[in-house]
Write a structure and sequence with these properties.
The protein is an alpha/beta fold. The chain is 45% helix and 13% strand.
Length: 407
């Protein structure tokens, strides 16, 4: 693989990184033998970046067990500070020291502030986040610092400019091109020399699975030998401002396919015809939406705190990708991104019908009526009590339960 340079750090990173959130499971726990084999194989084939987080269950401790001194010399380790667990300054120090012990490290290569938007980062700044970052950097306990972004695109550059960050992690794929950082935001981060790490290149596996019939036909006509996953990965890696694409690989089939894509896809290597093919597929998928929302964000902020674009996006995706079952990806996304699991509540149920959003919508949508549909689809009696229980028991337990139910 042709590694990509981060100008601010001077380090060369493999275009494919190993995401350690979705490691293979056995009896509800990490299958240590299989996961170790996968990670070692990835490293032997050029992967030099491993991403984990405090909230990824037993992931940090597992990596601490398997990453011997020889292996550590070949890879960069990235983990994250859980914003939802920080109430005061001491929490940051205590959590960080626990992470060093879990990972069995004296120094973490890349340390990210996890799942932030402008409100979350400002809350942490008031708790002396900068003092904390500068302290652990000066003590040689971390090398580089950044944040993983979970906010709207219009806040992204403000956070980029709020501190001298080294790297950023964003959700980015051809379907969500303008949902979070957007192509312009990624370019802005890269213009400052920052490394750009991409999560959800396959949108949680959605873009690798079954798509609307017309979209499938467009891809197959263009290249019958190329998988949906390959189209999606190539599109992200084609961006010259992207440093590394993270993938939670739990089988050798996935790993080998991703390695092959990363090996052949260099910046600006996709042909004009292939880029047009992806645009056609994206157009088909957009035209299949239940709510004609472009997620432009003009309707926010909502006085009641409803994340209107995200609510509508998740509702659309449930039908666009035919999500079924009691526990499905759209339901998971709803409670993770707007339902309050990550402390960022913006659910449709908060809407009180004030209508202030209506005059702002370029699509002239009846947003109040559409939010009622979203609420009916995803919210049910007693959900507030369930959310409270989940948040107090802990997000790692929630994630593990969902993964088991979806096996």
């Amino acid at each position: 693989m042709q590694n990509r340079l981060i100008k601010k750090t001077g380090e060369e990173i493999s275009p494919l990184g190993f995401g350690a959130m979705r490691l293979p499971l056995k009896n509800g726990k990490i299958d240590r033998d299989k996961a170790k084999e996968l990670i070692y194989y990835a490293i032997d084939n050029g992967v030099n970046f491993i991403d984990t987080a405090y909230l990824y269950g037993d992931s940090e401790s597992f990596l601490g067990e398997i990453l011997t001194d020889e292996i550590k010399s070949k890879v960069k380790i990235c983990t994250k500070l859980p914003t939802i667990n920080v109430r005061k300054y001491d929490d940051m120090e205590n959590i960080f020291e626990e992470q060093l012990k879990r990972l069995r490290l004296d120094c973490i290569d890349y340390y990210l502030i996890h799942a932030v938007d402008l409100k979350a980062i400002n809350r942490l700044f008031k708790r002396d986040l900068i003092k904390f970052i500068d302290k652990i950097k000066s003590e040689g306990k971390i090398k580089y610092v950044g944040f993983s972004y979970h906010g709207p695109k219009d806040e992204f550059e403000a956070i980029i400019d709020s501190y001298d960050w080294d790297v950023v992690m964003v959700q980015y794929n051809y379907f969500d091109e303008n949902v979070q950082a957007s192509m312009e935001g990624i370019e802005y981060a890269a213009s400052k020399g920052m490394g750009v790490f991409v999560m959800e290149p396959l949108k949680g596996g959605i873009l690798a699975g079954k798509m609307p019939k017309e979209a499938e036909e467009i891809f197959k006509k263009a290249n019958p030998n190329k998988s949906n996953a390959q189209w999606a990965f190539e599109w992200v890696l084609n961006n010259r401002n992207v440093t590394c694409v993270l993938s939670g690989m739990n089988s050798f089939e996935q790993l080998n396919e991703n390695l092959a894509i990363a090996e052949k896809t260099t910046p600006l290597s996709m042909s004009f015809e292939d880029m047009e093919t992806v645009e056609l597929v994206k157009r088909v998928m957009r035209n299949s939406l239940k709510i004609n929302c472009s997620t432009c964000g003009y309707c926010v902020p909502c006085p009641q705190g409803v994340n209107i674009p995200e609510c509508m996006k998740i509702y659309n995706e449930k039908y666009l990708f035919n999500h079924k079952g009691l526990i499905n990806q759209s339901l998971i996304d709803y409670y993770q991104y707007v339902g309050g699991i990550m402390g960022n509540e913006g659910s449709a149920g908060l809407c009180n019908g004030c209508g202030k959003c209506l005059r702002k919508c370029p699509q002239k949508l009846d947003i109040v009526s559409e939010l009622k549909k979203v609420k009916k689809e995803f919210e049910f009696p007693g959900v507030k009590y369930i959310l409270s229980f989940v948040r107090h028991v802990g997000f790692p337990l929630y994630r593990q339960a969902i993964r088991i139910l979806n096996r």
